[in-house]
Recover the amino acids of this structure.
């Protein structure tokens, strides 16, 4: 993997024909099969996740900035389906990470429930045992008090008070342990598990990590494309509406001319008729 990655870097810097003699090298065009079309459109997604859990592997195609510039300046840009394929690839990646996020959340909820049940069973036994002892001590204290043995009764009550504190401590420990199990969450961008309230440095490390940044970039690209498409549709709608208004205006103007012409003809006919009668 490391060897392939280094080879790709050398290809990008020096070209795939770096080991060929000058007379053996040939000029490439952007439409060559060996050229990465994703890179021509914008960027190659494979480069975003190198050495991460989401690694897509090394792209075996050529990434060349000059070829990308030539394609983007070409009149054929946007007519060959490269952009559509690029966007579909990004959408597939986001759908996959969304599924992973859903699985992670479900797994986290299941883990929390199992942990809560396990802890509950463990602490319930201890709490029940302390409650039984407290109840027994209180009963003994009542019996000793009825017999007039005040000091012994007070000793039993002090022991029961101590056990109550122990029981409250066990309950607090259980609640704290359950709460700690609920401190994990799933990152809504990349699907990684995060600790809620973690140190800021660890949070920053995650946000600047290659996998998180990669998915964030893909989502931003899709968002920009959606906004661009929405703007184009709105411009087309306005153009259609403007065309209809223009056509309606011409039609109304033509109708007015027809009415005016008919009025003139009617007036002329009346004049001719009047002259004839006279």
């Amino acid at each position: 993997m490391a060897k392939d990655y280094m080879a790709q870097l050398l290809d990008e810097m020096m070209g795939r024909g770096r080991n060929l003699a000058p007379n053996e090298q040939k000029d490439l065009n952007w439409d060559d099969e060996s050229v990465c079309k994703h890179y021509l459109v914008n960027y190659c997604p494979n480069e975003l996740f190198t050495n991460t859990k989401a690694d897509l592997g090394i792209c075996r195609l050529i990434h060349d900035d000059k070829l990308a510039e030539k394609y983007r300046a070409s009149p054929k840009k946007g007519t060959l389906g490269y952009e559509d394929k690029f966007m579909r690839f990004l959408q597939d990646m986001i759908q996959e990470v969304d599924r992973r996020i859903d699985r992670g959340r479900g797994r986290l909820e299941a883990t929390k429930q199992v942990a809560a049940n396990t802890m509950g069973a463990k602490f319930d036994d201890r709490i029940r045992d302390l409650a039984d002892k407290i109840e027994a001590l209180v009963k003994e204290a009542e019996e000793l008090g009825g017999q007039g043995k005040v000091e012994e009764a007070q000793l039993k009550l002090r022991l029961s008070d101590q056990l109550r504190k122990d029981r409250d401590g066990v309950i607090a420990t259980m609640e704290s342990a359950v709460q700690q199990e609920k401190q994990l969450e799933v990152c809504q961008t990349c699907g990684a598990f995060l600790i809620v309230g973690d140190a800021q440095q660890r949070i920053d490390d995650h946000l600047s990590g290659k996998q998180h940044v990669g998915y964030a970039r893909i989502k931003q690209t899709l968002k920009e494309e959606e906004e661009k498409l929405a703007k184009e549709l709105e411009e087309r709608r306005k153009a259609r509406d403007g065309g209809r208004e223009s056509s309606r205006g011409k039609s109304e103007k033509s109708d007015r001319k027809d009415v005016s012409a008919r009025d003139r003809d009617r007036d002329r006919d009346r004049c001719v008729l009047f002259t004839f009668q006279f």
